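Narrative summary of target 7.
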Amino acid sequence: MRSPVAGIVLAAGASKRFGRNKLLLSWEGESLARRAARVALEAGLDPVVVVLGHEAERVARELEGVAVHTVVNPAHAKGMNTSLAAGTAALPAEAAAAVVLLADMPRVTAEMVAKLVGTFRETGAPLVVSEYAGVHAPPTLYARALFPELGGPEGDGCGQRVVRRHQAEAVRVEWPAEALADVDRREDWERMCVPTS
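Modeled conformation, tokenized:
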């Protein structure tokens, strides 16, 4: 039996640039938080760990009935690295790798995530990265050997540093540029032509 590939959904941020919790916005009938968790599960990731922080109880309610594990990162205000560390620490020992997803990228599909996993299975590469017209962004698959390098006491960008450090060993999967769309500010949301809820 093959070792499972886990998922880490980062959903702890305070959405300061947006002005309210963007993960509660509705995209195609479900919140961004719930959609990201569902996409991870539909891609076959097992287990899926959702890292909560800001308004953890509200976001957790959005995940009711979805078969994910949640972990609350009390240090989420110190940056995404702390959430990445919390998610990695919650993974089971048998996980061969983990795909890290951001909950505010609603155009990422289960098929995209499954392609990363398939590429990992086929190549054995320790790192499988998504590229959107030459731009690296999540989701990214990290093999277990790289877990100790993920996360940190505070700040952002640790995942990117791991990618730079191991770029010679990485396999890249190309996606259309439009799939990169994420929600940082209200204008991002408006540009995606989705009615807010």
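Confidence is low (pLDDT under 50) at residues 193-197.
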